[in-house]
Amino acid sequence: MTLLAHDRYCDEIAHQVEQLRAVVTSGADLSATVPTCPDWSLEDLVRHMGGALRWVDTLVRTRAQENVPAERIPLAKGPEKQGDAAALDEWLAETGDLVVGALREAGPDTEVWAWAGVTNSAFWARRMAHEITVHRADATLAAGLPYEVAPDIAVDALDEWLQLVQWVQRNMPHDAAKDLRRPGSSIHLHATDTDPALNAEWLIELGEESIAWRRGHEKATVALRGPVTSVLLAFYRRLPLDSPGLEVLGERELLEFWLRRATFG
Q1: Most distant CA pair in the chain: distance in Å?
Q2: Distance between CA atoms of 197 and 232, rounded to whole angstroms?
Q3: How does pLDDT run across 69-80, given as a tens digit for each residue?
Q4: Nearest alpha-carbon partner for 182 in 256, 73, 80, 105
Q5: Which residue among 13, 103, 212, 229 is the one 20 to 30 A from 184 at the CA level?
Q6: Beta partners for 202?
Q7: What is the pLDDT of residue 178?
Q8: What's the confidence (pLDDT) of residue 168?
Q9: pLDDT tens digits, one per residue of 10-25
Q10: pTM score, whole prediction
Q11: What's residue 170's pLDDT?
Q12: What is the dihedral angle through the alpha carbons of 72, 75, 77, 79, rounded to the nearest 10 degrees?
């Protein structure tokens, strides 16, 4: 597994911000419930994502060595007026410029506080690229718009998700992920539409102490196959396993067990 270049993550954040802005200005109902995050409206989701980007901008720009509470970050909650697509779009555009500028200026190796064991700006470039990639999917689903993501980003997002679940399982023993233990059981993910050079297949073993995973084509207890975007969204619980193009082979209950527990917070 090789990380993408720092500039690639920065480029993707900028691209995803543009795509999310297009949802905001599409005429979609900002008060509509987001099906994949039912506690949020579409506007809530956009404000959450923008706030996360502004939080990271503050962490990176100030070279923070400890967490910075969100209430100390200017405009983290977005424009004062609710339901104003133009104001929300303007705020989101400025937000993207701020965080991408901060990440590019810092480069990948600047020491910055982070929560998952990697304390540098590279962690935040990667984390935000994938955070907004998935939340844009939430937004497009709520707005009824089509969704696509670059294959290299989708593949890396799956890598990162597995790394985060593994880290949480080892370091946050009270989290649901601690229950991801089924010795002798395994999950195989297989993207069917990517260039072979991406090696878009994974084997996840649910051991006694923690999960282990690697890239490769290997027999498993259950397999999830389909286009890489669909595999990504299903593994992030954004698409049902029965969605068109997806195929589950083997013990479906094991995959459902993973999806119930592979989360954190």
Answers
A1: 54
A2: 18
A3: 988 998 999 999
A4: 256
A5: 229
A6: 189, 215
A7: 72
A8: 87
A9: 999 999 999 999 999 9
A10: 0.95
A11: 84
A12: 160
Pairing of strands 201-206, 37-41: unpaired
In the predicted model, residues of the chain with pLDDT beneath 70 are: 1, 173-175, 264-265
Cβ–Cβ < 8 Å for 77, 87: no
CB 143 within 8 A of CB 28: yes
CB atoms within 10 A of CB 30: 21
Residue type, 219: K
Q: What's the chain's length in residues?
A: 265
Predicted pLDDT at 175: 67
